C-alpha cells in the first residue's frame, strides 16, 4: 500500500513539476518538443506548451524521488519519462481531432500519463495489476477534481 502511495506521488510530481518549473523560469528554456512543426493535417504535432524543459523537469524530479525512496533513479527516470510521453500522446490525439491546446478532454488528459508509467511499475516492481489500475484511476479522478482548485489559486493557467 505504501508503494502505491509513493507511485501516486510520483505521478503527481511527473505532471506537476513541469508546471512549477514553468512558473519559476517563465519563458526561459521553453523549447517545444515538436519544434513548432506541424503534422500532415496542418495542426501542431503536440503544441507549444509541451516543452523540453517540462520533459526534463518531470523526468529528473521522478528520478530523484525514486532514488530517495530506494526504488532506483533509473526506474524513476523511466517512470517520469513515460508519464510525460503519455501526456504527449494525449496532446497528439487532441490535436488530431481538432481540439486546441489546453482544451479539456476528461480521461484522455489523465489516463495515458498514468497508465504508461504504472505499466512500468507493474512490470518492474511486480505490482499487482489491479493496484496499478487503481492508482491510475485514482490519479485521473484526483487530477480532474484538484486542477480547477489549482486554477483558482493561480497555480495553473487552465482550470483542467
From TrEMBL:
Keyword Transmembrane: yes
InterPro entries, per database record: CarS
Recorded superkingdom: Bacteria
Keyword terms: Membrane, Transmembrane, Transmembrane helix
Transmembrane residue ranges: 55-85, 130-151
Record's protein name: CDP-archaeol synthase
Amino acid at each position: 500500500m505504501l508503494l502505491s502511495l509513493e507511485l501516486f506521488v510520483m505521478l503527481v510530481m511527473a505532471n506537476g513539476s513541469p508546471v512549477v518549473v514553468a512558473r519559476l523560469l517563465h519563458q526561459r528554456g521553453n523549447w517545444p518538443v515538436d519544434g513548432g512543426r506541424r503534422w500532415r493535417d496542418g495542426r501542431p504535432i503536440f503544441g507549444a506548451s509541451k516543452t523540453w524543459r517540462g520533459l526534463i523537469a518531470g523526468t529528473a524530479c521522478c528520478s530523484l524521488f525514486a532514488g530517495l525512496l530506494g526504488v532506483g533513479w533509473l526506474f524513476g527516470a523511466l517512470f517520469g519519462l513515460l508519464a510525460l510521453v503519455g501526456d504527449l500522446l494525449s496532446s497528439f490525439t487532441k490535436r488530431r481531432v481538432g481540439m486546441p491546446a489546453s482544451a479539456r478532454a476528461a480521461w484522455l488528459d489523465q489516463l495515458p500519463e498514468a497508465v504508461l508509467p504504472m505499466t512500468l511499475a507493474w512490470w518492474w516492481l511486480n505490482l499487482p495489476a489491479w493496484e496499478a489500475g487503481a492508482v491510475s484511476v485514482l490519479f485521473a479522478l484526483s487530477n480532474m477534481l484538484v486542477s480547477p482548485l489549482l486554477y483558482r489559486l493561480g497555480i495553473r493557467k487552465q482550470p483542467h
